[in-house]
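Q: What would this chain look like folded?
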Amino acid sequence: MIHRMDVDRNGLEVLGREECLRLLAEATVGRVALSHRALPMVLPVNFRLDGERILVGTGTGSKLDAAISDAVVAFEVDDIEPAARSGWSVVVTGMARVLDDPAEVARLQDELPDRWAPRGGGNVISISTELMSGRRIPPGAPEPS
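A: My prediction, written as structure tokens:
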């Protein structure tokens, strides 16, 4: 059986949903893009993939906590090797919501990566993964002409 790789108009490998989920499961730092006071904002976050949802720990009253409750956000994670001119990127668009079940939040707090912020914590935000796309530049890709 020959595996045919889908390639976009720029020569990048198009990743399927399962590969995107696999890459998300291996990563721990991503970026949430949201609208805050009608302006775009991108925030780096520690995260964990839980099934098909992205979980982010955040502080009560933080910009992230306040801005994304029940909002559509974008989430991006990548791994780039500049010297090898290779890497991948996964972008998710989904609904973000603050989890409000105390038992679920307590269980998930232990499973989330440690926050880098020195203070805060306490809330868990879930981002759904309805829309997902990924691209990969394979090692050894030809130089652009």
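The radius of gyration is 17 Å.
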